[in-house]
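Objective 1.3, modelling of assemblies. Example input:
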Amino acid sequence: MMNKKAETSMEILNLTWRILILTAIVLVTVSALSTVFSSKQDVRSAEAMLLARAVTECIAPNGIADENFNLGKCIATTAEGYFVNATLFSSDSSFSKSESFDIKSIQTDCAIAARGLSYTNAPVCTSSKSYVLISDKEGLKRGILEVRAGIRKVASNV
Amino acid sequence: MFRKNKKGQFFGPNISLIATSIVVVIILIISFVLVRLIVSPAGNLDSENSLKSQAITSLQAYLQTPVDVDVGGKIQQMEMSDLIRLAKLNSDYKDAAKVKTKEIFDPAFTQKYKLEVSDLFTIYGHLDNPTYQTGGLYGTLGFHGTAGVTLPGEITVTFSLP
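Predicted structure (tokens):
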């Protein structure tokens, strides 16, 4: 208390330390959050899964599929970068029908990707298989619905 | 005593502040590393959701599948859901329900599956070994896509895919 100049210097030093600590806290927090929010997330696998699920529910609502299904009624887009194939066949192999929606031949790339070969602009593909009942003129018969979906869209969503 | 030691006058009060600063910075660095390690994309969630969707569709179709059942010497056609409820009321039809279930799902799913009817039976696909069917090793393998329906009479039917 007697040395007022020293006291003032000490206060300035203390204040400097506090500012440095606060700055360090802010810098670390900003760095941590920026790495989280700026990291890229590839959502194409989720998108392909949702597409396959939507097509399955469209073709076979409540598990019953019409043998004369129309894939075009399930896909309301002409956008590029999507591939969908739906194959409906009976368990006794007496009936089989397959329809595809494929622009830019993603199906071939899906086959390549299935072999584990990675390359630039490779699509993300998924497939689903469900037991369904096929409705025809004679009634209901047991069948299987396989839906394959592929998403390229390299520029978006990645 | 404190005022006589001029060197101590500078460092003394500031040592705690310096120590606290170092501790705070270390905690911040550890938090930063933990955030980087913990935040990661959900890898298996998409495949689980896909399997669950397949299980839902398959279960809906299974319960509506028409089957022929010998009831009192007469062949009657009914849906699988009705046969399950009949088996719950009369255990004589339990084996018929199990046989019909395997006839439905074995051709459709080449991989394993699990169908469980509460307090009635559990079927693991493609295995006839009773040891495995009772749960053992096979029962502990993961089923990641599960769908369930509750029939009238509080009968829960659950279908699972690996």
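The longest strand of chain A covers residues 124-136.
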